[in-house]
Prior knowledge:
The protein is mostly beta strands and 312 residues long. The chain has one domain: Neuraminidase (6 Propeller), CATH 2.120.10.
Amino acid sequence: xxxxxxxxxxxxxxxxxxxxxxxxxxxxxxxxxxxxxxxxxxxxxxxxxxxxxxxxxxxxxxxxxxxxxxxxxxxxxxxxxxxxxxxxxxxxxxxxxxxxxxxxxxxxxxxxxxxxxxxxxxxxxxxxxxxxxxxxxxxxxxxxxxxxxxxxxxxxxxxxxxxxxxxxxxxxxxxxxxxxxxxxxxxxxxxxxxxxxxxxxxxxxxxxxxxxxxxxxxxxxxxxxxxxxxxxxxxxxxxxxxxxxxxxxxxxxxxxxxxxxxxxxxxxxxxxxxxxxxxxxxxxxxxxxxxxxxxxxxxxxxxxxxxxxxxx
Length: 312
């Protein structure tokens, strides 16, 4: 390793230590009409495993550090602070219309935290009298309901629910099991018009789409797209993702953030220094992608505007 390279590494370490954003030197591949319009930036990289980025209307972005049981907040200036300790291994997050941070707690519940992080209310922690396996990711709809996934990751064995599934809890607290035939359903998102529910299983390369007939009621699913694989014969699945205002779907994978149009056509892949786990659009103009990737959180500026849930 050359002296100049050592100097660059040392300088980058110092900048990170004092909270200065550092850019990835690799020029991103731009997807026409979408972006990125600039380099990938590391916001911070001091975590065990980051997940669940979620934006609020004020330009703040929240993310979870699952093993450390913490939720953090990035303010519009890029400063990172602790939002909540003891998060019950919170994973996917989303901000509801009340400003509460709704969390999939892998210890068995879906809960909502007050905007200051101090208070917690349980939305649901049981189905048919049994705890959930380990709620993973969620999406909110305009009706006040929550779609959420319940795979096997970090769950007790045998599985409390006996199978992995996708659920819907309505505004009144009624829970319905919607899907139970996917290998570890992980990420879940709605199209901007809320007529399609996307589910990203981790156990297969085929990503799924379901017509939403009414809140919490789905039609027959179909394959939305197939993820590119590190090896030609691979069958690796997705994790989390985001949706922009045009209805394009962004899915985190072993190769990066794979982007598809509403018909399922592959548009390109946005790569990050670490394998991404989840993503959201944030910032006051919703034109910044926030991506959680292993030990870090990254951002990249986009041309397209993102979609924020719920849309009211």
